[in-house]
Write a structure and sequence with these properties.
CATH superfamily: P-loop containing nucleotide triphosphate hydrolases
Bound molecules: adenosine-5'-diphosphate, magnesium ion
Shape: globular
Strand content: 25-35%
Number of domains: 1
CATH class: Alpha Beta
Structural class: alpha/beta
Distance between the termini: 31 Å
């Protein structure tokens, strides 16, 4: 689904290399987790995949279902089925949450050559999905994320994800700042979307999210590279022993 090979990325503004040869393949139907100390380049990887400005790719490739992701415009990446949930979801004053979602869903469908969803169908689907994420009707009418609590923003992102039905979902520290109940709701929302045709990359600083979203594969990132890959046990090992031993081993 997602294949990253030898990806090297530097900042455009500064001569600072951040990603130093990332290799990572996420298969359809699998959940891969990336853990790693602060500053290791996890968010940079998700920003580069999303097409954010300010980065220069100096070497390597990233493809989504074989298509060159790095050549695509931001909207083309979304249309191709990439979805990113960020650590700090943006607020969009003046745009109702429901209107935003409906526009996004229909733009997505259009890009995929599907017909627009009727108002009635859209309402039915969004109500159902919002309910399972404990998002009430009032929150659907408010401007996107404006005045939402941290937990509400994260749940709203999972709602966006559920509505857009992406092929490849990347979640960057979606658990940060969430209390246990909100984290469980987010995890349940993600688990409900697990599907044979969909890949997940879950970036998290702490192991606790992975108690609820059970990963198939765990990668440890340090200093711009994946330094170790293993099964779910690797997350537990890191939780107990920290990253220092792994980093020393790699060095
Ligand atoms: P992580 O998400 O793993 O904590 P980041 O991708 O946020 O790591 O950051 C990786 C490294 O790149 C850090 O050393 C960070 O300070 C640096 N970095 C990222 N973006 C910028 C930027 N715009 N300007 C300067 N340094 C940056
Ligand atoms: Mg960080
Ligand atoms: Mg980060």
């Amino acid at each position: 689904m997602l294949e990253i090979k030898n990806l090297h990325v530097k900042l455009e503004e500064e001569d600072k290399q951040i990603l130093k040869g990332v290799d990572l393949t996420v298969e359809a139907g699998k959940v891969h987790a990336i853990m790693g100390p602060n500053g290791s380049g996890k968010s940079t990887l998700s920003y580069v995949l999303s097409g954010r400005d300010g980065y220069e790719i100096t070497e390597g490739t990233a493809t989504l279902e074989g298509e060159d992701l790095l050549e695509m415009e931001v909207e083309e990446r979304a249309a191709a089925g990439l979805f990113l949930a960020f650590q700090y979801p943006v607020e969009i004053p003046g745009v109702g949450n429901m209107t935003f979602l409906r526009t996004a869903v229909n733009a997505q469908r259009k890009a995929r050559g599907q017909e627009e969803m009727s108002s009635a169908e859209f309402l039915k689907v969004i109500r159902e999905k919002a309910k399972s994420l404990k998002i009430d009707a009032e929150m659907l009418k408010r401007p996107v994320n404006v005045g939402f609590s941290g937990g509400e923003k994260k749940r709203n992102e999972i709602l966006q994800m559920a509505m857009l039905e992406p092929k490849m979902c990347i979640l960057d520290e979606t658990d940060s700042g969430l209390d246990v109940d909100a984290m469980k709701l987010v995890a349940d929302g993600v688990n409900a979307l697990r599907d044979a045709g969909r890949g997940f990359l879950v970036i998290t600083h702490y192991q606790r999210l992975l108690d609820h979203i059970k990963p198939d594969v765990v990668h440890i990132m340090s200093n711009g590279r994946i330094i170790k890959t293993g099964g779910p046990d690797l997350a537990l090992e890191v939780e107990h022993n920290g990253y220092a031993d792994l980093i020393a081993e790699e060095a």
